[in-house]
Design goal:
The structure holds two protein chains of two kinds. By secondary structure, chain A is α/β, with parallel strands linked by helices. Chain A has three domains: 120 residues, Alpha-helical ferredoxin (Fumarate Reductase Iron-sulfur Protein, Chain B, domain 2, Orthogonal Bundle), CATH 1.10.1060.10; 168 residues, FAD/NAD(P)-binding domain, CATH 3.50.50; 123 residues, FAD/NAD(P)-binding domain (3-Layer(bba) Sandwich), CATH 3.50.50. Chain A is built from 18 helices and 15 strands. In chain A, strands 3-2-1-4-15 form a five-stranded parallel sheet, with helices on both faces. In chain A, strand 13 and strand 14 form a beta hairpin. Chain B is an alpha/beta fold. In chain B, the strands form six sheets. Chain B has an eight-stranded parallel β-barrel, surrounded by eight helices. In chain B, strands 5-6-14-11 form a four-stranded antiparallel sheet, with no helix packed on it. A two-stranded antiparallel sheet of chain B has the order 1-2. In chain B, strand 15, helix 8 and strand 16 form a beta-alpha-beta unit. In chain B, helix 8 crosses helix 10. In chain B, 42% of the residues are buried. Classes of the chains: A alpha/beta, B alpha/beta. Chains A and B meet through helix 2, helix 3 and helix 18 of A and helix 11 and helix 12 of B. Chain A: This is Glutamate synthase (NADPH/NADH) small chain.
């Protein structure tokens, strides 16, 4: 059976990290939450709900906070989004529910939906109450879920509520994937991710840790389960492709973030360069500042208008004191035993729009640590190995699915999350997983009907 | 500059703002501070044989986060000795001769007792007397307060006793806990009252504690019906003031009471005929300082409207309140949604479908108007749509990342002006000022009332009228 069900107690925890990464958006207390809840206009067919990938009925859960029906509020959230607690902290609400709030056009102050959602979920967690759902009556069916991130967790919850066995396989020692290891600690602490999964495991979700599924194992799981859900996420961060990348002092953003979140990294050297300008790059740069670096540069080959990070993340990084080097490209590393400097060249845009180095504009940035954050590769190759090419179809490494059901081109395989969408947010993965869970249950029912 | 000075039943007033007989006028020290804050007058907390009060005494209704929208008390009249109250009245009048002090009185229903208290109050220097025939709790069980106000004969008789003795104006305070307030008002007038004040508090149970199942305010596990007041009662008070002031057999100088807390409230009571207004709950909530804006705001409004004195607009709205049968049935308005102001909350839409006449639709982006789509169908469409977080590098068009926060056309409702009955509901629920306006439609028909239709034989006299003693 499942290996164990109290992940929260296994949280590595570090007082040092906790003190350096306090909540970016502090929790509401009850008075503040109720006051804010009363501001909500209770829109019909609310735009916030439509904007939420999991379609949480936002006005409904907010009105339940106002009416002091906090159990009902939490249930409303969880019914739509089983990871409502992490999403309340990790979601880029500025471009989702709060971005859609009609208050932008009313008094210019959107309702603080994220903080209200966190309040409702915190109250549930602190009450020690179980999830307000029970497993469905056992159907005798089982699904193997590859990857233990938000997509698989959401899918597993839907399956369990429908009486289908859900067995999650994950390469790491703890569940949650990027939800646990990859989100800036000041947004979603590692321990909070685990606490939420503890609740989920009450539904009878089974976990197999430290297990990397290869093609052979996948074939075995396909044979032993009624369906397979692929929630693989993305793979390793791209390499720069320049000499010296193996030198000590060069790391990547995912390892760096996972390292400090699990307490293995508790300080940063004096000078840090983060290469890339996405949201993950910003998380890494902010982390370096908070871990004590004196000077943190973000290095990007284009300008601020082209950076893929959200505008509010860019603003946050500036406030943290991160410096930006725009229109430059790394061309080399200095340092023998350990990295000492990053060699850069300024870029210019040619008439056809391509970026080319400016002759004679090379310069050197002294650094003690380089963090690469230039996007993740896919790791779906094993799916197409050994004659499986015709079954699960890929496109540029992403698994192709039917968006409504999560079904791949191979009927027994479903998929969701970053491995299908190229890398979006936790909430997108949850929405994918939820649709796939419902899709799998419907497909299995259809199989029975046909049989 | 308009003046707020006025004369009420012969009493000169610096302004029409009086504190009602209640905890804010419990003692001289309070009333002197109130006068310093700008109140023109105060009706002393009702004087009579001292009583014993309970603990606790107040409860309230909060609404959507706003405190004390309605307020309730089970406190009785003054618990201080009569002579202490009278001594302090004399002191206040000595130090504030231009401010109005009214002695509110309540004693047992004996002629000599009333004569005695009237004499003593006037000797102390009161500018007028208010007879408390309205207190709905406690005192009424002892044959006083509303027990008097609810029986027109008692009301007339006691007013008469007081008038035999009184040298200052006598104001009778009316209870609303009666089916037709004009009846006791007429009785007071017959008894010789110089003025009326209305309304006193309304019988109420404000709420029940859902843990203990005890009503509030709780006294050792039990409660008692109390007197309701505060913003929630203003519409009831305005109606009763209008009823009295439109009745020639009842109308007297009126001191309006009930939920007044702003200059707008005061203006409304004066427009329905009040000469002064009395305030309690708002002062208990925010303190005496509220009178500054009541005076300032009322004066500014008078200046904008061109009124020099309170008399210039007193009662101007009375002729505009008519019986329903006198309303023009050929007058028609329809809702108009100003698209540029619409924020897309669609509260008007859901209100019209569930609470009105199903004539607002969300079909502007459909190929053709569709009045058959129900709210459930609209909402189901949104729920069925797959949404994702906008990520610029993944979304080629990059739409929606930073706004622009314009209301999408699909969320701006359309009013079917043919079906719209002009009920106002949408404009009332709309949170945006001036976004939904009610626009007059020319029906091409001359004004016509129900009464005129009946008289013209267009509609039959309602068969149900026969035998109904209320008609």
């Amino acid at each position: 059976m499942s290996e164990q069900t109290n992940f929260y107690s296994q949280s590595p925890g570090s007082a040092e990290i906790a003190s350096r990464f306090p909540d970016l958006h502090p929790a509401f207390d009850k008075t503040a939450a109720v006051t804010e809840a009363h501001r909500c206009l209770y829109c019909f067919d609310a735009p916030c709900t439509a904007a939420c990938p999991t379609h949480i009925d936002v006005p409904r859960f907010i009105k339940k906070i106002a009416s002091d029906n906090l159990e009902g509020s939490a249930k409303t959230i969880l019914d739509a989004n089983i990871l409502g607690a992490s999403c309340s902290r990790a979601c880029p609400v500025e471009v989702l529910c709060e971005g859609a709030c009609v208050m932008h056009r009313y008094n210019k102050q959107p309702i603080e939906i994220g903080r209200l959602q966190r309040f409702a979920m915190d109250v549930l967690h602190e009450s020690g109450a179980p999830l307000p759902f029970s497993p469905g009556k056992d159907t005798g069916k089982s699904v193997a879920l590859i990857g233990g991130g938000p997509a698989s967790l959401a899918c597993a919850a839907e399956l369990r509520r429908r009486g289908i066995r859900a067995e999650i396989f994950d390469a790491r020692p703890l569940p949650g994937g990027l939800n646990t290891y990859g989100i800036a600690e000041y947004k979603l602490p590692l321990a909070e991710s685990l606490r939420e999964i503890d609740l989920l495991s009450q539904l009878g979700v089974e976990f197999r840790f430290n297990t990397t599924v290869d093609a052979a194992q996948l074939a075995a799981l396909e044979a032993s389960h009624n369906a397979v859900f692929l929630g693989l996420g993305l793979g390793a961060i791209h390499r720069l492709g320049i000499a010296g990348e193996e030198t000590a002092g060069v790391t990547n953003a995912l390892d760096y973030i996972a390292g400090y979140k699990s307490g293995e990294i508790t300080s940063a050297p004096q000078r840090v360069a983060v290469i890339g300008a996405g949201n993950t790059a910003i998380d890494a740069a902010n982390a370096a500042v908070r871990l004590g670096a004196r000077e943190v540069h973000m290095v990007y080959r284009r300008g601020p208008e082209q950076m893929s990070a959200f505008a509010f993340e860019y603003e946050h990084a500036k406030q943290e004191g991160v410096k930006f080097l725009w229109h430059v490209m790394p061309i080399g590393l200095k340092g023998t035993d350990k990295v000492e400097a990053l060699e850069l060249v300024k870029l210019e845009t040619t008439s056809d729009g391509s970026l080319v180095p400016k002759a004679g504009e090379e310069f050197s940035l002294p650094v003690d640590l380089i963090v690469l954050a230039i996007g993740q590769a896919t790791h779906t190759e094993f799916l197409v190995a050994e004659g499986k090419a015709s079954t699960v179809k890929l496109e540029r490494g992403r698994i192709l699915i039917d968006r409504a059901t999560g079904q791949t081109s191979s009927p027994k395989y479903f998929a969701g999350g970053d491995c299908t969408n190229g890398g979006r947010e936790v909430v997108d993965a949850v929405a994918d997983g939820k649709r796939a869970g419902i899709g799998i249950a419907a497909w299995l029912e259809g199989q029975d009907a046909n049989a | 500059m308009p003046t707020l000075e006025t004369t009420f039943a012969g009493i000169k007033c610096l302004n029409p703002f009086w504190l009602a007989s209640a905890p804010p006028t419990n003692c001289g020290e309070q009333i002197m501070r109130a006068f310093d804050a700008g109140w023109g007058g105060a009706v002393w907390k009702t004087i009579g044989e001292p009583i014993t009060n309970v603990s606790s005494r107040y409860s309230s209704i909060d609404w959507n986060g706003q405190k004390m929208m309605g307020f309730n008390n089970i406190e009785l009249i003054s618990d201080r000795p009569i002579e202490v109250n009278l001594r302090e009245i004399a002191e206040v009048k000595r130090r504030y001769p231009k401010h109005v002090v009214i002695a509110s009185l309540m004693v047992e229903s004996k002629r000599e007792t009333w004569h005695d208290i009237v004499q003593r109050a006037e000797d102390a220097g009161a500018d007028g007397l208010e007879l408390n025939f309205g207190c709905p709790h406690g005192m009424s069980e002892r044959g006083m307060g509303s027990a008097v106000g609810q029986v027109p004969e008692y009301c007339e008789q006691i007013t008469g006793w007081v008038k035999e003795k009184a040298r200052t104006p006598v104001i009778v305070k009316l209870t609303p806990n009666i089916s037709d307030i004009r009846i006791p008002a007429r009785a007071a007038k017959r008894g010789g009252a110089d003025a009326l004040s209305a309304i006193n508090t309304i019988n109420s149970i404000t709420s029940i504690d859902l843990d203990t199942l005890e009503p509030r305010p709780m006294v050792d596990g039990k409660s008692s019906h109390g007197g309701y007041c505060g913003p929630a009662v203003k519409p009831i008070a305005l109606n009763m003031v209008q009823q009295v002031m439109s009745d020639p057999d009842a109308a007297l100088p009126m001191s309006g009471i009930g939920g007044i807390g702003t200059w707008q409230d005061a203006a409304e009571f004066i427009l329905l005929g009040s000469g002064t207004v009395q305030v309690c709950t708002a002062a208990m909530h925010y303190g005496y300082r509220i009178v500054e804006d009541m005076a300032d705001g009322l004066q500014a409004w008078m200046r904008r409207k061109g009124y020099e004195t309170l008399d210039d607009f007193r009662g101007l709205s009375l002729p505009k309140v008519r019986e329903w049968k006198h309303l023009n049935l050929n007058y028609k308005v329809v809702a108009h949604i100003h698209e540029s102001k619409c924020i897309g909350c669609d509260l008007c839409y859901t209100a019209c479908w569930d609470g009105a006449h199903q004539c607002i639709h969300l079909d502007r982006t459909l190929p053709a108007p569709d009045h058959t789509r129900t709210p459930d169908m609209v909402a189901a469409e949104s729920r069925g749509r797959i949404s994702t977080t906008p990520i610029p590098k993944l979304d080629i068009d990059g739409a929606g990342v930073d706004g622009p926060y314009r209301t999408p056309l699909s969320r701006i409702p359309r009013v079917d002006e043919v079906e719209c009955v002009g009920c106002n509901l949408c404009s009332l629920v709309c949170p945006v000022p001036e976004c939904i306006t009610m626009e007059r439609i020319d029906t091409g028909l001359p004004p016509q009332t129900w009464e005129e239709r009946v008289a013209a034989g267009i509609v039959p006299q309602n068969a149900g009228d026969a035998g109904n003693p209320n008609l």
